[in-house]
Amino acid sequence: SFTPNLEKVVYNYNGSYRTPAVSIIYKDAMNKAGATQSYTLNKGTDYTVIYEDNKKVGTATVIFTGTGNFKGFHVENFTIRPKSTILRKLIKGKKQFSVVWKKQTTQMSGYQIQYATYSKFRKNVVTETINKNKTTTKVLAKTKAGKKYYVRIRTYKQIKVNNKNLKLYSSWGKVKSIKIN
C-alpha cells in the first residue's frame, strides 16, 4: 500500500503552480512470518505524479500512480489559500475608528476584519465581513470610549466543495492597535 507524504499541505496563492515535494513509502503485504517490508519509492521509476487544480485558490489534487513492481494509485489533496493583505492604518473617530487596508483582488472574494480589547483575540471579539474585494476601508462603530482595540484583517475566497459554498481564508495579517477617545 502507498503511504505518500506531502512536503506541505497548505500554500498561499502566488499565481504559480504549486507542486509540493513528495516522498512515498510502499508496504508489502505480510509474509508468512507476519512481517511487512517497507520501501521508499523513487519518483519516475516506481511511481508518477500528476497535479490537478494546483494554480488557483481552493483544493488541489496530487495523484500518485505506481509503476513497475508497485501497482496501484493514491490521491492526496492540499490547499491553496488566498493571498493575505496589509492593514495600512487605523484612524480615530468619536466612539469609532476606521480601518484602511491594501486592496487585494486576485483570486479572492472579500475581507474579514476582527477587533477586540484583548491582543490574543480570545474574548470581546467583533468580526466584520466585507463582501467586495475592491473595498479598502471600513468604519467600525461597535466600540467604547477609553478602550484600546486590537485589529487584524485577512482575505477570503468563496469556493464550492461538494456543492456547498465555503469561505477559504488567508492567514491573518499583522495586528495593529488604537485607543478610542
List the main descriptive attributes of the protein structure presented here.
mainly beta; elongated; 181 residues
What does it look like?
The chain is mainly β and 181 residues long. The protein is built from no helices and 15 strands. The chain has strands at 2-6, 10-12, 22-27, 38-40, 47-52, 58-66, 73-81, 87-93, 96-101, 110-116, 125-130, 137-140, 148-161, 164-169, 176-179. Strands 10, 11, 13, 14 and 15 form a 5-stranded antiparallel beta sheet that branches. The chain has a 4-stranded mixed beta sheet with strand order 2-7-6-5, with no helix packed on it. Strands 1-3-4 form a 3-stranded antiparallel beta sheet, with no helix packed on it. It starts with a strand and ends with a strand.
